[in-house]
Amino acid sequence: MNEIEAKSILNKTKRRDPWFLDDYTINPFSGCSFNCLYCYIRGSKYGEHMERKLGVKINAPELLEKALANRAKKKQHGIIVLASATDPYLQIEKELKLTRQLLEVILKYRFPVHIITKSDLVIRDLDLLKEIDEKAILPKDLPGLERGTIITFSFSTIEEKVAAIFEPGATAPSIRLKTLEACANQGFLTGVSMMPLLPWISDTTQQLEAMFSAFKKHLAHYVFPGHLTLYGDDPSSSKALVMRAIEKHYPELMPKYLEYFKNRTDMPAYYKKAFYTKMSELGQKNGLRNRIIP
Ligand code: SF4
Prior knowledge:
By secondary structure, the protein is an alpha/beta fold. The chain has a single domain (2-286), classed as Alpha-Beta Barrel (TIM Barrel), CATH 3.20.20.70. Helix content is 37%, strand content 14%. It has helices at residues 60-73, 93-96, 98-108, 126-135, 160-166, 173-185, 205-217, 238-249, 254-261, 269-286, and strands spanning 2-4, 11-12, 24-25, 29-30, 55-57, 80-82, 113-117, 149-154, 189-197, 223-227. It has a seven-stranded mixed β-sheet. The protein has a three-stranded mixed β-sheet with strand order 1-5-4, with no helix packed on it. Helix 7 (205-217) links the parallel strand 9 (189-197) and strand 10. The relative contact order is 0.13. The structure holds iron/sulfur cluster (SF4). The site of iron/sulfur cluster has 10 residues, from loops.
């Protein structure tokens, strides 16, 4: 673990994303030990084994205290996404309690929070998240939002074997599903970011139906899906790592992945059109909305 003295911790976004509803973002760690092959933060800075380059922003609580005191004084309460470029509940957080300290500051200044995670460790902090849920000052320009805490669980698959290949450091999908249900049972606004779906692996009709049905069964309120995007040319880039995994574990899919990603980062327009139509149909069929706010 590398200790980092960060210069700032609260990032104001240029515009609020319609899915994630982020007015601000906080990343307590630099890099991510969940080490997903498709992760967009990969590249020259973090490299192939992101867990080895993991940095902990040890002064994050003090920085956040100053930043939120200032924003609160100006009545600039907005939704804080925790986190946008790491997971707030990495393995190291269990001992460190850095995210927990940040939540204490967020509660003190009554900011709403959106937790995005692949971990069950969020359960530990439900006491603080409950208080934030009740006491946060909500943004006036989001009249449909009535809750101060949103908890989103991220999935690219619910198959344990597939997750072990593409998300080697993350909590198993079955545990994530149980945690989602536990949060819903405690009354939290909670749902799923199904991003990124892996072409011909987790985006097949059979897999999608199983996923939507599992999310419904485990009491998700919303599901927002996203397709795969792969960047970079160096050996540690998301594109190189996913291609290597396909070659090793799904050699029969290699020609299709090469066709789509050899000279591009994104799926073609016809795929995206069919993809979002299918997602909308499955959402309706399962009574799961595709937005956090109804
Ligand atoms: S959990 Fe998120 S931030 Fe961490 S490696 Fe996976 S995709 Fe990247």
